[in-house]
UniProtKB/TrEMBL annotation:
The keyword rRNA-binding does not apply. This is Large ribosomal subunit protein bL17. PROSITE patterns: RIBOSOMAL_L17. One of its GO terms (molecular function) is structural constituent of ribosome. Transmembrane segments: none annotated. One of its GO terms (cellular component) is cytosolic large ribosomal subunit.
Length: 131
């Protein structure tokens, strides 16, 4: 029985799972949108939202906690400068999961996980290119 055992194993050891989610969080904040399986996206969401909450706190201890999990100093700087300002007036719900279908090889359900303001940024970039 799995009483009080939260989280999905995803067919990996604990160390592999931790490393995978550290890489995925780093990529999510670097690119602001990643494509992965639906199950991985659902497990990634609370980790990413916790990192954004740390960034909103903004003190040195929060920055060090984020640096201990996120693998790139440049991504942490981006998180604590631009992404923090994007969600300053929002209390949670920083990420969005969109289901995209199934993967052709093994029929795994695929999803896109992105930061909530991502679509508006893409539209602004397209308008700037047109002008």
């Amino acid at each position: 029985m799995r009483h009080k055992h939260s989280g999905r194993r995803l067919g990996r050891t604990g160390a592999h799972r931790t490393a995978m989610f550290r890489n995925m969080v780093t990529s999510l904040f670097e690119h602001e949108r990643i494509v992965t399986t639906h199950e991985k996206a659902k497990e990634l969401r609370p980790i990413a939202e916790k990192m954004i909450t740390l960034a909103k706190r903004g003190d040195m201890h929060a920055r060090r906690q984020a640096l201990s999990y996120i693998r790139s100093k440049d991504v942490v700087h981006k998180l604590f400068s631009s992404i923090k300002d994007q969600f300053a007036d929002r209390n949670g719900g920083y990420t969005r999961i969109l289901q995209t279908g199934v993967r052709r090889g093994d029929a795994a359900s695929m999803a896109i996980i992105e930061l909530v303001g991502y679509q508006e940024q893409v539209a602004a970039v397209k308008e700037a290119k047109d002008n």
